[in-house]
Structures
1.
Amino acid sequence: MKPGFVIFALIVFALLSYALYAALVLAPTELTMGDVQRIFYYHLPSAWTGMLLFIVNFVASIWYLIKRNAKADILALTTAEVGLVFWTVVLITGPLWARPVWGIWWTWDARLTSSLVLWLIYASYLILRRFSAGTQMPVLAATLAVFGFADVPFVYLAIWFFRTQHPQPVIGGGGSLDPYMWHVVLWNWLAFGLFAVLVCWVRWRLETTKRQVEALHATAALEGGYR
Amino acid sequence: MSESGITLAALRKDLRLEWRSKDAINSMLFFSLLVVVIFSFAFNPTAEESRIIAGGLIWTAFLFAAVVALNQTWARELRNQVLDAYRVSPAPANALFLSKAIGNFVFVTVLEALMTPLFIVFYNLRALGPAYLLLVVSVLGTWALVVNGTFFAAISLRTRSREIMLPLLLFPISVPALMAMVEATRIILMGDGSPKFWIVLLGVYDVVFTTVCLTLFETVLNAE
């Protein structure tokens, strides 16, 4: 294991510990929602991190389509997988927060529905990667990533217009946020963002090693090493 | 031969094949008939309710039925390596793509023309808004479904269990288009407000995704 990786992992661990402490102890308790509101410190940073990873996935896919660089493909795979995990956290913490505050687990509101559709798009991306094989798979996956990303503005626009036409439960929070709460959110975002980088790093190395092993197997088979 | 000439030639071949076999249209028709019947006892709507939900019913039925035709689009070209022949021929890839997309558009439009009267009878429909706009919605909406569908059928052709793959790829991407179709149809049937926003959204969706398809199709066709 590289020393750089260990140092980075330790930094991430320290940051996550501080962020946890800040979110659970340091942050002021919200007036109406009480302690439940502390989910916010996981919900929002996860969403931002997931969003960033999806953007990286899009850029890496374009990069792959132009240059056919294997590293770009591994980056696209890694960010899509980790991004989907973070997005799943968003979709799980959301209802957990909504239930005590709104009284319902789920509502087909603009923000929630578009998040769910985004999750579906990237899930289908990973399913495609699972179901196709060989050298054509990265090309197919990269084209789908372009479609998925091009779809996001439409999803948001359609659902936003659709739902604002009808009465709906109001999203909590909004407008004014205590400055100290912002402080805690940003620390949490930094911690989770770097944690995502760490996980991507591990996944990257796993995928690189896997491909090296596959290449070695292929060479060995060609040279008759398995006879 | 010009690009449009090649498109026309390939289109004519597909239409003739379909005219002789009627595979796609028959299975689509029967499939959407089943959907109409199943929906009718799943919801058991009155005339007033059915006006509200009809947009959703019609378009879901057409979407599901379109998948049947879309799945056959490229599978037919696999026999005797026709697709490989296309790839080595100097014909531009986009001509092939357009011919397939237009072909599917024709099939699904025929399906809609045949099924819509049935929907009207079964669900007691009568538009309270300007009915001619439904024509615009159906042209734009059908194109939105088939252009992406034709592209994703080409992708799923190269995967394991390709018939399952197509809807998994197509449906999430089609959510905004489907919403626009359903909402525009509902607004026209109910006669409340203007469906303009949804029609414009569909138009922009069509332009954007047709461009993306035409840009990337050659890459997908030649993916090795």
2.
Amino acid sequence: MIKRVFPFLNWFEGYGLNSLRIDLLAGITVALVLIPQSMAYAQLAGLPAYYGLYASFLPPMIAALFGSSRQLATGPVAIVSLMTAASLEPLAAIGSEGFIMYAVLLALMVGAFQFSLGVLRLGLVVNFLSHPVVNGFTNAAALIIASSQLSKLFGVFVDKGQHHHYETIWRVAQAAVHYIHWPTLLMGALAFGIMYGLRWISPKIPNVLAAVAVTTIISWATGFQHNTTTGIEAIQSGELRQLIAHFNQTVDNISKFAEEQTEVNLALESAHRAHDIVAVLTAEHRASILMLNLERIKDEAHVYRKKIRRYLLTGVEQSDGRLRFYPQKEIPPGVHSDGRTWRIKVGNKLLKTDNLMLMGGGAVVGAIPQGVPALTVPDINLKVVFRLFPYAVIISLLGFMEAIAIAKAMAAKTGQRLDPNQELIGQGLANICGSFGQSYPTSGSFSRSAVNLQAGAVSGLSSVFTSLIVVIVLLFFTPLLYYLPQAVLAAVIMMAVIGLVNVSGFIHAWQTQWYDGAISIITFVITLLVAPELDRGIMVGVGLSLMVFLYKSMRPTIATLSRAQDQSLRDCIAHGLKECRYMAMVRFDGPLFFANASYMEDQIMDLMASKKELKHIILVFNGINDIDASGEEALSLLVDRIRSAGIDVSLSGVNEAVMKVFKRTHFPEKIGEDHIHATMEKAITAAHEKAHRDGEEDACPLMTYCRIEPN
Amino acid sequence: MSIVVISSDSYRRGRKIGEKSAQALGYRYLDREILPAVANRYGIEEAKLIMALDEIPSFMGISTKLRDRCLAYIQEAVLGELLQDQVVCHGLSAHLYVHGVSHVLKVRILASSGGRVGGKVSPADVSRRSRKKAKNREKFARRWSLDAFKVDETDPSHYDLVINLGQIDADEAVRIITDTVDHRRFKPMTYSLKCLQDWELGSRVRAALMEQFPDVRVEADGGKVVVETGGLKREKQKKTAAVKALAEKIPGVKEVQVHIINDIFRQAVESFR
């Protein structure tokens, strides 16, 4: 029992110093991949890069300790990071304190959901996400993730699209046509080159780490980031100064409106509590007007931001060493510029006119707080919890699907037993404990788990060592990451999503069943269209696959059988076989239950109506694996109806589960024990002579092979 | 004529019985003395071959890759010798890789599994220490054989004969072996000879491919050889051609079929996901 609660106690059976050494080495190897990857994924999740390190501190260790797989490497992964950003974007500004707080809360919710599923042994719930749906979703997610990194790769800044992801991409494209920061793009290209090159030349070298190390050194040595602050008087463009003033006024108005909105919301709540309908309506009216005004003013702010960002400035050094900034097309003749292109850094906040931030270089990760994050319980806001719940469910299931897929493959290779429910408990606890350490949602990583396995990890201790190395990095090495270019993290993310693209998945699904292919494509298209609200895409997919499942259950295949060339009994239509005039052998493929019982009745009635000389019907039960009360009742009524029409009926191939039901309901007495046969052949033999007495058929298609001759 | 393969928990005592049996039967005796020749043929140190037979791969010791390569070379040499027939083989783990060859008598010698009951030494006389030692040796043998060949060599069901030297002395053991090998069941038949030939051909192909394709699996049937190795989709053509080029050169190979098994773990590593 104690080993079920603490599965890690099993690790130490036959564990020696040698295993410890191997685990240590594997742990270090995984950490070398995890550290840069986690920072990239945190960026994808809309969080400061160092939150990736926070998500790599507790989750790998806890998941290994309480999970079932010994080699599964848990931590930040691409899909979960994207879903985190998608779920939080409507609630708070990316990277803001609120956003971070909600990300941590989301981790707690995901953990609690996974843990509950595991404890209740409901791991099978993941089956609701069918392969075609997941394939369509991941392919779309891959495109969304890759395209979301374009701005960082080009070194341009844009506002996110108001409703759709493709609006953002369009804005990035427009900004990139206007201006590309070439050193940033080169840095990204170099990272790609290193990662791809090493993959071919020496796959054993951790290529992500190599790319990060090389580019960080270059960034530090060349002064890649080149920011400066200045007063507005240094800007030598009246129009730009005016734009800054207008922008600040608009931002000021936004904050006033936001304050007013809070007041109105409070008034609305108190009116609801007091059941004062008039006050509720008044407050709602005010809230609607405020909302409209806020949207209008946000649009204005966006327009100003866009205009400010389009200004490309050139610095001209003054006699006192300070820089004056001229629009590039308005440099006075005879003046020597510093050769850089300067841009004003503008976001959602007021621009400080006495301390404007200008960027003359590329973007880097920047300062990372040194030390391990403080362990605190996340703030639980019930309103936010309700809003995030659907996302938490999807993230839980998607994350777990990814984790269990690689865990199963590894268990098959190592010969270990894998308990999916225990794995859910491990993943759940990892996310719960992770949220106490400022982690955002995590999951089992495909690539890092494979790295762990290939490094020979014997037990989950390798993941414990990974966590410890992350702690060491947080304590002592964060200053080294300051100069890491953001474009490199974007390149790392893009490399990861290439692995998510699986076009053959669509083809395979289509070849298997056209409707699976269609569901996959529909999920893909809808996810792309509704992005960033990714939950809708997946919900549509799940809805469609459930509808198909229901339809197929309601309309199972009902086949009439005849003797085929190989002497077996096969579907007449599929094999072009003649049907017997006096006997019909009908096979029902699927469980007989309330949803399809009447369908079977209708089909048999149609058959009787179409064959006037019919004397006997054999119901082939080989395909019926289950029957419920409605099914049994429908069958019983059907027997009555068939017999009342002067036709005899018998059954063949009834399996044990269905026979048990028949015996409980005394069905064999009703149909006659001699009318239930073990095999189809026996059923034909028993009924053939009587059914064919006085018959005019030359050869019975149930006894001999009779093909329908083509006209 | 037959083949005797002896496995023992004590190399020294197993060797003694092996040599005596070979002498009594007039067969050749095959032992680790062939290792220098194997080392010479494949350009590998003899010490590595001995390590592969005696050690479990570890961080500081022999690597899994090298161990598997060494064992493939030894296997190839041993099977080549067994094909000559009339051999007593000991100490080269042949019992773990000669399957389904009915004219091979597989013998397990238990030299340290306990005392003689009712004889000179009672179970009580066997010290706890030596019993523990024997147990550890058995545990190691199980781990080693499972790790190297996925077969538990301590499982008696893998042998035709298990002789406990605690009960039966060495000369009696030799007599039992020589009597048993005379049994009709251990005479070479067409099928069992073909089976051994197939193993031998497969081992030659595998030994030739091991250096380039450490995970290679080979099955031979007549002159037809099926080779399986892991790889990525993009490597399929290149690997297939390389395997064919190497395998087709080996005498006795008439046809080579190559299956590249998708290496999902390498694929996962490269996916960066």
